[in-house]
Each structure stands twice: as structure tokens, then as C-alpha cells.
Fold this protein.
Amino acid sequence: TQTLRELIKTPIQYLDVGARDGIPSHLLRYKDFFTFVLSEPEVKEAEKLTREGYRVVPQALAGSVGRRPFYVTAKRGSSSLLKPSPLLRKVFMRPWTAEITDTYTVETTTIDVLEEQQGFRFDWLKLDTQGSEMEILRGATKSQPLCITTEVSTMELYEGQGTLYDIIPYLRERGYMILDWSVWAYRPTDPQYRRN
């Protein structure tokens, strides 16, 4: 870590959007080199993260500032600003996990506005927002983090979701390239689809 201290004179500004369960564990060992800001609109999860000492923005990041419905699902990690699509509910998850159990209105903001409020630009952006990643990226018209880690899907698992085929060209047009790629394979849970 001494070498890192010599190389990194100012903290890396890290924005975690969809921050359920906190910062990824592989980054925590380097926490002295980061300023972590977490965006988590789900009220109970935001309160838990705040109690754990994180700097939490209790708003949903989106393409614009405003108010939107937030859909809470039985499997909390699948909650989103977007409704789960029938494909997600019927094919890729056990139906109850994607069932909407609550809906409430949340404040939304953009990365550009958040940077102004925080007083610095984010160096690293992590997006895991269950389908709204493309919208969030489009709302960042001034911001250009050095690194973006984002979840993408090849299919529309949430209504109106931007997929891999939207996100990759969008980021390439802005000068980004793929540095790493991890694939989480989903197998259909419905036996009807497993046969095909």
C-alpha cells in the first residue's frame, strides 16, 4: 500500500448507484484511497447503510431530476424505477421474487446534479440499478468518469430497459472501451423454457 500512497495523492471519488449491501468487498481493502458516495433510494436500505457509516444519497439516480415511482419487489435486490417485465417474472426468476410488493414515490437526480452538490467529479461510477443504467448514463451530460462499472442485460428484464446493445455503443461513442467482462448466466426457472 505504500506504493499506492505515493501514486494516489487525492482520494478516488467513487459513486455506487444501487448500493444495496454497501461497497464491493474487493474495494474495501483499499478504502483509504477512496471517497465513497452511495446512492440508494430504498428507504430501509439507505438507513442501514447510513448507520454503517457510509455517505448515502437517498435519491434514485435517473435521467432527470424529479419524482418517480419506485417498485419494491419480494426479492429486494430486484427493486427498480422500472417495472419487472413478464420475461423476468415468468422465465428467469421464481415468479414470487419479482412480484411487486410495494410502490412509493422517490426523488430522482442526475449524476451531473449530484457532482455539483458533492463539490467534486466522480472518477469511478458503479451502476447496478436493475434496468435503469442506460437512463442514468444519458443523464450524465457533463460528467465523464474515468471508469464505469455497470450491470447490463442482453434482454429487457425491466420495462423500457436499455440493454447491452444500447449501452455498449453509447459508451464507445463517448470514448470508453471494455476493460473487463463478467458473465452471470441466468437459466430459465420455468421448465417450459428449459427444454428449448
Q: What stands out?
A: Residues 164-173 form the longest helix (10 residues).
